[in-house]
Design a protein that fits this description.
67% of the residues lie in helices and 7% in strands. The protein contains nine helices and four strands; from the N terminus they run E-E-H-H-H-H-H-H-E-E-H-H-H. The protein has helices at 15-37, 43-67, 69-74, 76-81, 88-105, 110-135, 166-184, 193-209, 224-252; strands at residues 4-8, 11-14, 150-152, 159-163. It starts with a strand and ends with a helix.
Length: 253
């Protein structure tokens, strides 16, 4: 792995930072295009980008600390300022909260904007996870002797034995979800449908991958990320059920 791509005096370019920046930029371009197609003010994409980047990083760091409180108590400053240790779901949750506030302030429909943003979320997630793999930031899977095993001896968090490259698995699924969402968005779907489908797909994939990751178990012998994934799945299912029920009432009414 190559956590540092370029280093000259005080200038350092890391693979994680580069790919994370790429993820945000590509997601922004796709969101801006989708907003124009859906007659949403494209200026909103700029506002969300500016707000989502810091909130995603802060949320990801907070969530990681909550997942590893013992390590945080032992070395709080090292964990806070470390380049490793960013939990994606923490970034998602805080970003969603900030995004909802901005969307409402701009008097747009939250679900309509989230629908238009869903493909961007998926591709951003996919590219961001490639950054985790390239930098070896520690979000590895359990040890394995299978053909899928990868070692991260030069990673930010070095591992010399073969482990499941769970960031690559998540990235693979996210790319598939991106393609699925792009295809589905062409259909005349009810408002909120695309977003709830994305939540459902994302939740199922993350829940499954967590079984081979190294995250500590919490309630019900599940990881914290799995509990959040279950929430995503339930929200997705309930949202789709409500949309279908309303559509049925309107059709019969």
């Amino acid at each position: 792995m190559y956590p540092i791509l370029f280093n000259y005096k005080i200038i350092t370019i890391g693979s994680y930072g580069l790919l994370l920046g790429t993820a945000f930029y590509i997601a922004f371009l796709i969101a801006e295009r989708e907003y124009k197609i859906k007659s949403i003010d494209p200026e909103l994409a700029y506002k969300l980008l500016i707000a989502v980047i810091p909130s995603a990083i802060i949320g990801a760091k907070i969530f990681h600390i909550l997942e590893n409180l013992d390590e945080f108590k032992a070395a709080p400053f090292e964990m806070i300022f470390s380049g490793a240790g960013l939990s994606v779901y923490g970034g998602f949750i805080l970003s969603f909260i900030i995004a909802i506030a901005i969307i409402k302030k701009n008097k747009e429909s939250v679900l309509k904007v989230f629908d238009a943003s869903s493909p961007a979320m998926a591709i951003g997630y996919a590219i961001g996870r490639l950054g985790c793999h390239a930098s070896g930031d520690g979000c590895y899977g359990i040890a394995t002797e299978s053909i899928f095993g990868v070692a991260y001896p030069n990673g930010i968090v070095p591992v010399s034995i073969n482990v499941f490259p769970t960031p690559l698995f998540e990235s693979f699924f996210a790319f598939i979800f991106f393609m699925v969402l792009l295809k589905l968005r062409k259909n005349n779907l009810k408002e909120g449908t695309l977003f709830f489908i994305y939540l459902l797909l994302n939740g199922v994939a993350r829940f499954a991958v967590e079984f081979i990751r190294l995250n500590p178990k919490t309630a019900l012998l599940l990881t914290q990320a799995q509990l959040v994934a279950i929430c995503f799945i339930l929200i997705g299912l309930v949202g789709l059920f409500v949309i279908r029920s309303r559509a049925s009432v309107e059709k019969n009414g």
